[in-house]
Design brief:
Elements (H helix, E strand, L loop, with lengths): L3 H10 L15 H12 L4 H7 L4 H23 L2
Helix pairs in contact: 2-4, 3-4
Length: 80
């Protein structure tokens, strides 16, 4: 199993497709935004929390859930 950070780092090397294009279908807009801000824009949780108008702890939890959901969707895609 490839860690998400590695998966997207390889994808980001190919600058022809925006980062969000590598995210699987099925993610909510909030999940897409938080993953993009953290993995593509390389923002810290405190910065993302301000952008998304939430606490830093809530941001960390949302990111963790989004990452897990993304991994599940990518695994399903791989198996189809």
């Amino acid at each position: 199993m490839v860690p998400l950070d590695e998966h997207f780092a390889v994808a980001a090397a190919d600058n022809l497709i925006p980062f969000s294009g590598y995210l699987p279908n099925g993610l909510s807009e909030i999940e897409r935004k938080i993953l993009t801000l953290r993995l593509s824009e390389d923002l810290e949780y405190v910065e993302i929390a301000k952008i998304m108008n939430m606490t830093e702890n809530a941001c960390r939890m949302q990111y963790s859930r989004a990452r897990r959901h993304c991994a599940e969707l990518l695994e399903r895609q791989k198996n189809t």
